[in-house]
Amino acid sequence: MSPNKADFPRDHVPSHDALQDWVESQIEREQQSPRPTFPQLLQRFLMVYSGARSLDADSAKLPKHTLVQNVHKLNCFFRIWSTSSFWCRDPANKITKLPLSVQARLRKIAREALKYLEFELLKSLDDCLSQHAQPQSQDKIALWASRPQRGNQ
User: Fold this and answer.
1) Which three-class secondary structure state does DSSP give residue 35?
2) At the top level of its lineage, which domain of life is listed (predicted)?
3) In Å, what is the CA distance from 69 to each residue of 17, 99, 142?
């Protein structure tokens, strides 16, 4: 098969959960650096707060949990969509660039997730703004961390 026509097998297209796990493993690797940056630490906070990689049901009880969870997911899929190129190990264990068609497919999956998550986030933010009151003190950290940060990637 031509590298320009390469694609995932029909029954092995990566799911949104699998792609999110992939990005989260990258976030965890970034935390291994001796001096993680503020955007890296913020992304880690969002990941932990959202309950990603956690079997702890208590995380769902945190203030604005769904909002933070959706922001974290949006950040994960934005990373995939905005990545300039993807690399992998070939069967000979050499680092090689993924075929462009596979990269395009990954970006398409990420773009579809982004559209859905943008809608959900705007709906959550509308709910917050329509309350016509100052945010509760327990909500402030989640709301602050969910705001777009300049240079977040």
Assistant:
1) coil
2) Eukaryota
3) 13, 31, 10
pLDDT digits (tens, 9 = 90+) for 16-45: 999 999 999 999 998 888 898 998 899 999
- Closest residue by Cα to residue 142 from 56, 7, 21, 48: 48
Q: What is the DSSP letter of 15?
A: P
Q: Which amino acid is at 86?
A: F
Rounded to 10 degrees, the C-alpha dihedral 53/57/61/63 comes to 0
* 3 has pLDDT over 60: no
Give the residue numbers spanning the domain of 57.
15-27+37-146
Looking at the domain assignment, is residue 2 inside a domain? Answer: no
Find out whether 152 and 43 touch, Cβ atoms under 8 Å: yes
Q: Is residue 42 part of a domain?
A: yes
Residue 3 lies in a domain: no
Mean pLDDT of 124-137: 78
Count the domains in the chain. Answer: 1
Is residue 1 one of the residues assigned to a domain?
Answer: no
